[in-house]
Write a structure and sequence with these properties.
6-stranded antiparallel sheet, 24% strand, 5-stranded antiparallel sheet, 28% helix, Chorismate synthase, AroC fold, alpha+beta, 17 strands, binds flavin mononucleotide, globular
Amino acid sequence: MGGNTFGTLFKVTTWGESHGRALGAVIDGCPAGLPLDEEDLKVELVLRRPGRRYTTPRKEGDEPQILSGVFRGKTTGMPISVIVWNKDVVSDYYELIKETPRPGHADLAYIKKYGYEHWDYRGGGRASGRETVSRVIAGAIAKKLLSCLGVLVTGNVVNLGGEEFPSAKDPQEGLKARLSPFRVVNGDEGAEEILRNALKNKDSVGGIVEVVAWNAPSGLGEPVFDKLKADLAKALMSIPAAVGFEVGYGFKLASMRGSEARDKIVTEVGEPVLEGEKAGGMLGGISVGGNIRVRVAFKPTSSIMIPEKTVNIKTLEESDIRVPGRHDPAIVLRAVSVAEAMTAITLVDHAMRSGLLNPVRIEWNESCERLWRLYREYLPTSLS
Ligand SMILES: Cc1cc2nc3c(=O)[nH]c(=O)nc-3n(C[C@H](O)[C@H](O)[C@H](O)COP(=O)(O)O)c2cc1C
């Protein structure tokens, strides 16, 4: 039982269903002294929001309200509770298809585990991608805390529908991807073409998100089961539609020679550091100091017009089901913000566990503010 809370010291609980009255997050373990208001949360939420080009037209207002844990503009060290009311919810369609679990969705698994009569069939219920609003809220707080460690977290699409797109070479490139409607560092036109074709064929495509935590400190990760790479894998694989995880060069390393696969250890400004990011900035599951680079693969959107076979739960008759209306041709675009959020949450938890971030109170200063402000500066003007 359970499973709705993530983290050891920085504990994030998400709650709520897609078509319920509201959803939200409770963040327990955020230190006192962090300046926080609703605008800070919106800076990240706008990039996850549907309604951008090539994302679903559902109008999610995503107006977060902070209910607790903030006083006089700063966190108090008490649980921070944030609520987002669900608007633009139309459940009629789900009434029509509630006896026929949608292929690719969590419907059948929930029916088998919890029983058909207990299952919230409206919009995927708890399994909906809408749950990730709560993750992005907690992620915004985590990113803000990481600003005080000098760490910036950015993500971008590196594969869309089987086509490769470049990795971010530096934090500026990572930030610039926030301005792209396709969340790519370079190649908006190519990405648009892929999505246009998918839509034309009433189909969808998958993709891969790369997340980089720039300038991460060394020492994050606890041997042996709470290695940083293991916790990042759990965090990122818990995102709906995530199907694969890689650290650094990932699966590519499996087909390389030992002589090619190691990162050199070199001296830089009087410090031994890794040259290259083949290992994703971690050795033995502990960060070595520098950039942490991970990837997560997302499957194509399941809700498409092309029919697929399913079974009526009551009659056990087989039939075809298709999802009418305009759909999201690629989940991966909206998953970037979620992947960044889960990475940031994991890093904050480990920074506290390693004694690098005071879990009780923090001193917010000009250098924290300067880094945090960058996220706000890299927002498409249509969204800010
Ligand atoms: C931000 C986000 C939005 C999503 N939106 C959709 C969607 O519009 N249509 C859809 O079929 N799946 C969508 N998904 C994926 C489903 O929620 C997911 O495939 C489903 O819950 C089954 O889980 P699984 O794919 O992890 O097995 C979305 C996922 C995320 C992260």
